[in-house]
Design a protein that fits this description.
two-stranded antiparallel sheet; alpha/beta
Length: 364
């Protein structure tokens, strides 16, 4: 009976159909094997290309190290020899701070950026700098500040003498009570008064992305914030020029916006600074690194005096002396510090920040 059933199945083509399905399965298996083989070849090729890129980057860093060695004496990292030599050379060739401001005031310069440390701002130096810049080039007509655009009406009311500064601060406090973040620091009055006296339009160029409290709680928000804020501020500056509101401007800008944001050494780990982005708009800039004796970042130190350095930045510039200025000479190629978003710290790798600046002003 079994033989009869098998015979009927063969007669009806059941086995033939089964063989056909078996052949198709075999073909699909061979096809999948070919796809897998191609994928492995592509992966291996990519890995080799990545290795070549990595090696090329390592070679570039090695060349960079050789180049840096040509500009600075050999010293241990803990001794901060490169910074020491740089500052000693700068001070030896320094003059009064006005010499740097006169260079910045050259008519070809459209934007002067004063890089500051927010922790301790030398407002009096900024006021005298604006006065000098205006005297050198009367075309200076705009002052950009790292303040939120949504607070522009408060600034305009004070500049137009519709409110007192105390009324402005009261309005800020009222907004803060409603849970709104503010960019006012409370020390702006001398700047605003100088702007009124010099006929400068004050423009709040920044945007509120995350509050300081949020970023203190989650340092990764600093990276997200800067990625948005840098292009925003650069566009705000460019729009003011293209719209005819400004012909020459100055900006007091935190140093973290003057240097690029670097989170790793890959191409995707670098976001351009406000300074770089402003230059892409065709505006000639002059950036000044303002280093204040009392403005050293308490947690991380300063670019020229990190806490790991054994050398005191100010040992050759006694307290009470006049501000000094100098132009960086023969700077080594820039290696930007890497920002660690997990603990909000910078890894300097012995890399100087001064390549970002055209001049340096030291305030005792």
């Amino acid at each position: 009976m079994v033989k009869a059933v098998l015979g009927d199945m063969e007669k009806n083509g059941v086995f033939e159909a089964f063989d056909m399905r078996k052949n198709r399965c075999a073909q699909m298996i061979r096809f999948c094997q070919v796809i897998l083989l191609v994928a492995m070849i592509v992966f291996c090729a990519s890995a080799r290309a990545e290795d070549r890129l990595s090696q090329g980057f390592s070679d570039a860093l090695a060349r960079l190290g050789d180049s840096k060695a040509a500009h600075a004496p050999t010293a241990t990292a803990s001794d901060c020899g490169e910074r020491k030599a740089y500052l000693a050379t700068g001070l030896a060739n320094s003059s009064d701070a006005d010499s740097i401001l006169r260079k910045a005031g050259a008519s070809a310069v459209r934007m002067v950026i004063l890089g500051e440390n927010h922790r301790n701002r030398p407002i009096d130096l900024y006021v005298s700098s604006l006065e000098m810049l205006k005297s050198v080039d009367p075309a200076l007509d705009c002052l950009f500040l790292e303040m939120y655009g949504m607070e522009q009406p408060l600034i305009d009311d004070y500049i137009s003498s519709r409110t007192t500064f105390e009324q402005t601060r009261a309005a800020v406090r009222k907004n803060e009570e409603k849970g709104r973040s503010s960019s006012f620091r409370g020390d702006e009055q001398p700047l605003f008064d100088a702007a009124k006296r010099l006929g400068l339009r004050v423009i709040a160029a920044d945007v509120n992305v995350h509050t300081p409290a949020q970023m203190d709680k989650d340092p990764s928000l600093i990276v997200k914030s800067i990625k948005i804020r840098n292009p925003f501020m650069a566009d705000r500056i460019a729009d003011a020029f293209s719209g005819g509101r400004c012909h020459k401007g100055a900006m007091i800008l935190g140093k973290s916006h003057v240097m690029p944001l670097v989170t790793d050494r890959s191409e995707r780990g670098r976001w351009p600074s406000v300074l770089e982005l402003v230059r892409t708009h065709g505006l000639k800039t002059f950036a000044i690194d303002v280093i204040h004796r009392k403005g050293i970042e308490p947690k991380y130190g300063d670019a020229l005096a990190p806490k790991s350095c054994s050398w005191n930045l100010w040992e050759r510039l006694p307290a009470g002396s006049a501000p000094r200025g100098f132009t960086p000479s023969s700077p080594s190629p820039a290696i930007e510090p890497i920002f660690n978003a997990h603990d909000a710290s910078f890894s300097w790798d012995g890399a100087p920040l001064w390549e970002q600046y055209d001049g340096v002003i030291l305030k005792p």
